[in-house]
Design goal:
Order of helices and strands of chain C: HEEEHEEHEHHHEHEHEEHHHH
Strand content of chain A: 25-35%
Number of helices of chain A: 3
Chains: A alpha/beta (173), B mainly alpha (255), C alpha/beta (309)
Largest interface: A-B, 42 and 46 residues
Largest sheet of chain A: 7 strands, mixed
Helix content of chain A: 25-40%
Structural class of chain C: alpha/beta
Bound molecules: adenosine-5'-triphosphate, magnesium ion
Oligomer: heterotrimer
CATH architecture of one domain in chain C: 3-Layer(aba) Sandwich
Distance between the termini of chain C: 48 Å
């Protein structure tokens, strides 16, 4: 009867709402959100050390996400890490002397590839390679350097790199 | 006195656990028959799930906002506020969403299941059904149990979504975190299977446990006003303990 | 487990059955000869050697009882003598400690749950406290057995339910909820629910309680009509002897865990035994104590001297 029907409709709505929430969580707040952002083109970059860079990590230019890491491989001849990034087709006009670096968002955040635009009149094409790259800044190296250069007896050493971190791995904003 | 009661109380608790387990078997045995009463299950999903929406959504929003504030403060000590979205979503998906939803569900829907079934027993309605050749396990108990199992994960997802919204509200709109950083950090660290889906498994298990306790307490209550009151209290107490204990076990094994 | 139905006492059954139990002091006038459980016998329900102890109190002590097929049988007896308990035994809601109960040849206490439910589909039961489902309207309460067991078109359900409600005079109350009914109305709704599937056996636990004389008259007529037109067997627990006289073919008077007297209402009304004389004469003193078994009254009130005197 009508009362019973309204139950059923309401319950249906509730279940829909629940599944909508699940779908939202699963697709918009997880790494799934980084999959296939539409048409893109590939660029390559070689790094001595990629640190904790992961697949599908963001690629940013001026802090704006423009693509993601598509593959990470070791070049057997040069023993460098070869990283392929997929750049959204909307961002076609990136000068071909731009540099790629691996940054950490904050001190504890994840690593991402940051692109610093150059001044060349020519733009990157699909399959091009970055000439200028800068590897991931290793926290261990930083601390090691600091301990060697700075005062070794102070417990203030722990605070040192924390202060230094923003300058060494500038989160662009 | 207390020394004499100690072992007997432990024995009582053990007996209750055993009876509860047997009751679960009875419910499972009645599940096929309860498929005939789909309408009743739908009605119970309405009562247990849809009617809990307000409390779940409100609490989810506030929990998210509090998490946003607290974690922002903690993260800013390490200069890691960019990770706010990540930390909030991980703690919600893996722990707070399933657990808090289960505790709220026990208080909101579990108690009403217990009281309802208890009163049905006290007023002979259960026996009347048996006399009409309707199995109360299939008609009354199994639909409520099923409804709990269905509703809990959905409620937990809604709770989580509202929590994320709340944290975003505090972190981005109020404390001025960058919107893009908030989301991109989250999306690069949260895994669908390890975080979101494991949380759903948890809340499925909690749904089963809480509604089992609720229907068990209602079904076996002493048919008096005091008995029903007692059973309702026991539902909340037992569900809370079991949910938190089970949460530990599941976290240890799942994650 | 409250729904406890398991096979239980069986050892004593044979012994109790063999013993010529509880005939002394009873009048068996219109009684069918005890028969081997042949299905087409004159008895729909046969109770043999029923023994029950509840909470330390012996309720039945080797009770034998036959309910004739197609007749209205009334069970009477002082309050607390176990009439409701007897009905529960007959429908398998409560297991006896010993004895057998056969309905149409089926041994009720030993039936598996499935078979018991199949049997119950053919039995209507009016609870002493109505036991309406409080979540449903009057209409849905009466329709409940139909909806649960038969897949009838809504139109037909409506027709059947309204017919039964009309029979108990409550067609107009179909939309009310049980909380909006008076006690007497609830009884009549419960009655409509008990008869909605046209069962072969109907058990009424005090159908006349709380009814005004007009409704009572109608219900008496209804029970009688169901019997005469559909051949339903009815078992009726009631205290109103005048109503019982009009409706019952056979009356059993229970007392002391046994059948104290049996016969047609007219025979019992003559009051040939001390049981019937006390019960139908309403005398406080006699073989049936008015008091629930208790210790010395004066001692209870704290007068030790009076207790000794
Ligand atoms: N669950 C129980 N536990 C213990 N004793 C019970 C229980 N149920 C009933 N009794 C006892 O059994 C006896 C018979 O109860 P029953 O309800 O059959 O009486 P009755 O003949 O129907 O009385 P009334 O005419 O008042 O309805 C009572 O003395 C009651 O105290
Ligand atoms: Mg009674």
């Amino acid at each position: 009867m009508t009362q019973r029907r309204s139950y059923q409709v309401g319950t249906g709505l509730f279940i829909l709402l629940g599944f909508a929430a699940l779908a939202y969580l699963a697709t918009q707040t997880t790494s799934v959100a980084n999959f296939s952002q539409g048409p893109s083109y590939a660029l390559k970059a070689r790094f001595d050390n990629i640190g904790q860079l992961k697949l599908r990590a963001p690629v940013k230019l001026a802090g704006v996400r423009i693509g993601s890491v598509e593959s990470i491989a070791l070049d057997p001849s040069s023993l460098e890490a070869q990283v392929t990034v997929a750049i959204d087709d909307r961002y076609r006009d990136i000068p071909d002397d731009s540099s790629a670096s691996i940054f950490t968002s904050g001190l504890l955040g994840d690593q991402y590839v940051g692109i610093k635009p150059g001044g060349s009149p020519d733009m990157f094409k699909d399959g091009d390679e970055f000439v200028l790259t800068q590897s991931s800044m290793q926290l261990e190296d930083l601390i090691g350097k600091f301990l060697v250069n700075g005062s070794p007896e102070k417990s203030g050493a722990a605070a040192g790199p924390a202060d230094a971190a923003p300058s060494t791995s500038p989160d662009p904003h | 006195m207390s020394r004499a009661r100690g072992p007997s109380m432990a024995g009582d608790a053990l007996a209750q656990v055993g009876a509860c387990g047997l009751f679960l078997l009875q419910i499972l045995a009645a599940l096929p028959a309860s498929l005939r009463h789909v309408r009743e299950t739908v009605r119970q999903v309405w009562f247990a799930g849809a009617m809990s929406l307000v409390i779940i959504m409100t609490c989810g929003l506030f929990v998210g906002m509090v998490l946003g504030l607290q974690l922002y403060y903690v993260l800013s000590i390490f200069g890691g506020t960019a990770a706010l979205g990540t930390v909030v979503s991980l703690s919600l998906y893996r722990e707070l969403g399933p657990v808090v939803t289960a505790l709220l569900f026990a208080g909101r829907a579990g108690t009403s299941m217990t009281a309802e079934i208890g009163l049905m027993r006290a007023t002979d309605q259960i026996e009347a059904m048996e006399m009409m050749a309707v199995d109360p396990l299939a008609y009354v108990v199994a639909p409520r149990f099923l409804a709990g199992v269905i509703a809990m994960p959905l409620l937990a997802c809604i709770f989580n979504a509202l929590g994320i919204f709340g944290a975003h509200l505090v972190g981005v709109a109020w404390l001025g975190l960058d919107n893009g950083t908030f989301w991109s950090n989250m999306t690069s660290s949260v895994d669908v299977w390890k975080d979101v889906v494991n949380g759903v498994w948890k809340s499925l298990a909690f749904g089963a446990v809480v509604s089992l306790i609720a229907v068990f307490q209602g079904y076996t209550t002493a048919p008096t006003s005091e008995g029903v009151a007692y059973a309702t209290t026991r539902t909340v107490v037992a569900s809370s303990i079991v949910v938190l204990a089970l949460d530990f076990v599941m976290t240890a094994f799942l994650m | 487990m409250p729904s406890g139905r398991r096979g239980g006492a069986s050892a004593k059954v044979a012994a109790l059955r063999a013993a010529p139990s509880g005939r002394n002091g009873t009048q068996r006038v219109a009684q069918a000869p005890p028969s081997i459980p042949a299905v087409p016998s004159g008895n729909l329900v046969e109770v043999r050697g029923l023994a029950t102890v509840l909470g330390g109190k012996t309720i039945f002590d080797g009770l034998d009882l036959d309910i004739a097929r197609g007749k209205v049988t009334a069970i009477m007896g002082p309050s607390g003598c176990g009439k409701t308990t007897l009905l529960r035994h007959i429908t398998g809601q409560r297991l006896p400690d010993a004895g057998s109960i056969r309905i149409d040849g089926a041994d009720v206490p030993r039936l598996p749950r499935q078979a018991l439910f199949e049997l119950r589909e053919k039995i209507g039961f009016l609870f002493q406290n109505s036991a309406l489902l409080t979540d449903f309207t009057v209409f849905e309460n009466v329709a409940f057995p139909l909806r649960q067991h038969l897949d009838l078109p809504e139109e037909l359900v409506r027709n059947i339910v309204l017919t039964k409600l009309q029979a108990v005079g409550l067609r107009g109350a179909a939309g009310l909820t049980p909380a909006e009914l008076s006690g007497g109305m609830a009884r009549r709704v419960a009655l409509a629910r008990a008869i909605v599937r046209d069962p072969m056996l109907i058990l009424y636990d005090e159908p006349f309680v709380g009814l005004d004389p007009i409704a009572l008259n109608q219900i008496v007529k209804l029970i009688r009509t169901l019997n005469d037109t559909l051949g339903v067997t009815s078992i009726l627990v009631a205290h109103e002897f005048s109503a019982v006289t009009r409706v019952a073919d056979q009356v059993f008077l229970l007392a002391g865990g046994k059948v104290a007297a049996a016969g047609t209402p007219a025979e019992l009304a003559r009051g040939d035994s001390p049981w019937t004389r006390q019960f139908f004469g309403g005398e406080a003193d006699g073989p049936v104590p008015f008091q629930y078994p208790a210790g010395d009254y004066a001692a209870d009130l704290g007068f030790p001297a009076a207790g000794r005197a």
